[in-house]
């Protein structure tokens, strides 16, 4: 097969899709399409700020209409945006990330490469090879291998909320957030083959608290953690996400309790982007690995979080971090730095496992894009028999989730199987999308 390495894409139209998954979850997808009908697909799900994201995205896409774009960096330069400016505005960051991810998908499809391979080409694809900028396949191509698989961890939080909006009052009440409910959902994920489970047990908490030490409001959350860990046993890991509900004193008091309960990481007790100084103090005293940065934009942001000792594990989200290519660059750069720190025994590193785990509690387009990114940067590393940290997946939100894409999302034994074909390897199934949502052009 012959593939293009100097491909370009000139967007002409923008189409948006909304899919109502749960009362408080609406997945939002976009397609950028050119005159020839080639489309790049991305997800821009962003909760209550979604309308502002779409408005911003419509304006930005309009400014790029007809422009020949050869890489995701062209988006920033053509729009006159700097990473520092975008990093200050999550709405702008989400809109820019959506455009850049859709562009990466479109360019990979034009180059006849899976998105993971397209990302792995890096600088090589921007340098035409051979006549006309074509790169020919080797005379003796390697035999096809099994479909790549990306290990997932099961985020059980959304599955603990009610599924049918017509049967509940708004705002919805949790269906079963008891310790028993957490344990049952964790076991369900374990039985499906997931080796790592994540829960967010402290959503009733909000700093500041009246008393010192572990807040009384957190006691129920600790019971949930203990029950979930007991359900999955010592061989499987339990990640705990705190959704930035705590302050310095309560975060410090909570960490040994989580450690005793068997937690494997401590995610965002405080917001590491908004309060890096206090998050650094927690990191200095904690024994559990500290994870965070889900709303960060740009490689420099994640490098700073790690380099300044704010977290052990960064969590770029393709919907906000700058898109697929930026997430790939972050994964490669941070994991290579980790490997160097391991070899020298100096610097910020204090864990031997990976330091990049993609954040993805969203829909199937975000998961598929993130899986391509994870596969791409993991292929660039020498893991010494190990592998990258697993990718997040919000399990059991709706039974029809896999039908949103064609071919259908395929999750087996706790891993996502990447589909074959160029780009993402899948497209929206419009009949399934319209059965649960709507389509429009902003």
Question: What this model shows, in words?
Answer:
- With 442 residues, this protein is of the alpha/beta class.
- It has helices spanning 50-64, 72-79, 83-87, 90-110, 115-121, 179-191, 219-232, 248-261, 276-285, 299-307, 324-344, 364-379, 430-436, and strands at residues 2-4, 13-22, 25-33, 39-43, 134-136, 149-155, 196-199, 237-241, 265-267, 290-292, 313-314, 391-394, 405-406, 411-412, 415-417, 427-428, 437-440.
- Residues 123-144 and 163-174 have low confidence and may be disordered.
- It has 13 helices and 17 strands.
- 50% of the residues are buried.
- It folds into 2 domains: 2-136, 2-Layer Sandwich (Enolase-like, domain 1), CATH 3.30.390.10; 149-423, Enolase-like C-terminal domain (TIM Barrel).
- Strands 6, 7, 8, 9, 10, 11, 12, 14 and 15 form a 9-stranded mixed β-sheet that branches.
- Helices cover 36% and strands 16% of the residues.
- Helix 4 (90-110) crosses helix 5 and helix 5 (115-121) packs across helix 12 (364-379).
- It is globular.
- Strand 14 and strand 15 form a beta hairpin.
Features:
442 residues; alpha/beta; Enolase-like, domain 1; TIM Barrel; nine-stranded mixed β-sheet; four-stranded antiparallel β-sheet; 13 helices
């Amino acid at each position: 097969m012959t593939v293009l390495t100097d491909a370009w894409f000139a967007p002409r139209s923008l189409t948006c899709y909304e899919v109502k998954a749960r009362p408080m979850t609406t997945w939002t997808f976009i397609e950028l399409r050119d005159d020839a009908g080639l489309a790049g697909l991305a997800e821009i799900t962003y909760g209550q700020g979604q309308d502002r994201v779409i408005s911003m995205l419509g304006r930005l896409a309009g400014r790029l209409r007809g422009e020949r774009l050869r890489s995701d960096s062209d988006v920033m330069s053509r729009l006159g945006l700097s990473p520092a400016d975008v990093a200050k505005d999550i709405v702008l960051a989400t809109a820019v990330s959506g455009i850049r991810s859709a562009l990466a998908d479109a360019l990979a499809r034009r180059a006849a490469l899976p998105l993971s391979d397209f990302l792995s080409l890096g600088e090589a694809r921007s340098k035409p090879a051979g006549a006309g900028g074509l790169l020919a396949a080797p005379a003796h191509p390697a035999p096809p291998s099994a479909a790549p698989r990306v290990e997932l961890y099961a985020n059980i939080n959304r599955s603990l909320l009610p599924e049918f909006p017509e049967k509940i009052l708004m705002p919805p009440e949790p269906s079963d957030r008891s310790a028993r409910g957490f344990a049952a959902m964790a076991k369900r994920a374990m039985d499906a083959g997931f080796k790592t489970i994540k829960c967010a047990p402290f959503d009733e908490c909000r700093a500041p608290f009246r008393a010192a030490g572990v807040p009384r409001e957190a006691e129920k959350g600790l019971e949930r953690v203990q029950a979930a860990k007991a359900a999955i046993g010592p061989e499987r890991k339990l990640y705990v996400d705190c959704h930035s509900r705590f302050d310095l004193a309560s975060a410090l008091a909570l960490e040994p309790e989580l450690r005793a309960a068997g937690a494997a990481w401590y995610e965002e007790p405080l917001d590491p982007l908004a309060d890096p100084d206090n998050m650094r103090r927690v990191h200095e005293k904690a024994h559990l690995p500290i994870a965070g940065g889900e709303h960060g934009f740009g490689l420099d942001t994640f490098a700073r979080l790690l380099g300044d000792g704010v977290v052990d594990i960064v969590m770029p989200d393709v919907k906000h971090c700058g898109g697929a290519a930026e997430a790939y660059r972050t994964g490669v750069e941070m994991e290579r730095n980790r490997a160097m720190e391991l070899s020298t025994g100096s610097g910020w590193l204090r864990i031997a496992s990976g330091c990049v785990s993609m954040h993805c509690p969203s829909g199937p387009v975000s998961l598929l894009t993130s899986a391509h990114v994870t596969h791409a940067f993991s292929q660039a590393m020498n893991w010494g028999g190990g592998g990258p940290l697993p990718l997040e997946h919000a399990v059991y939100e709706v039974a029809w989730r896999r039908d949103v894409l064609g071919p259908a999302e395929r999750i087996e034994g706790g891993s996502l199987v990447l589909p074959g074909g160029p780009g993402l390897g899948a497209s929206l199934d419009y009949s399934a999308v319209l059965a649960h949502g709507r389509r429009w052009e902003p």
